[in-house]
Fold:
Amino acid sequence: MAANILEIRDLVDVVSHHTIIDHLDFAIEEGELRVLVGPNGAGKTTLIDLITGRHRPTAGQILFKGERIDGRARHEIYRLGISRKFQVPTVYDNLTVFENMSIGLRGHRSVFSSLGYRITPAAAEQIERILAETREETSATARLIRDIAKTRSVMVVEHDMSFVRQIARTITVLHQGGKLAEGSVRDVENNPKVAEVYLGKAKISAAS
Structure:
């Protein structure tokens, strides 16, 4: 069994009297690829912020290779070998991928003309063609992450469950700042608590 490279021990983060991370415990082994999922507001981004030194936790410990890093400066944590890739969301969560892309086709129209805009058959065909390319790029990204994880420990925060299925070995599900479930894709997708709070009573396979 590999040694733990990252350990989260009884971690708590309270901001303006709101508990964001609530006594969280989990660990990642050396060379492991871990996927972190959970509904919006579960504490995923805050957890990454705490690990990388962007914020200091209220209580608890974060250990990297057995050494405490909670409270250290970001540049010190970076030098230890922890880095982060930021994701910049630029989509409307309540719209489908197709609908988000159709908004981009409206260009610099006025508000009122945008409200009445209708997708032409040619534009719809263009979107479908781009989506097909995007699916191929997603698969390529999954292969890249698996390759990176051959020589490094990697934690991926992701909402796209079809993508999760391509890379996941172990999944940790966060909810309200705590660990709701942890295990393989099969373990998580068959967990009734996960289905209730995150997948809307649908399995990951159905969400893909």
Summary: The first strand starts at residue 4 and ends at 15. The CA atoms of residues 45 and 88 lie 12 Å apart.
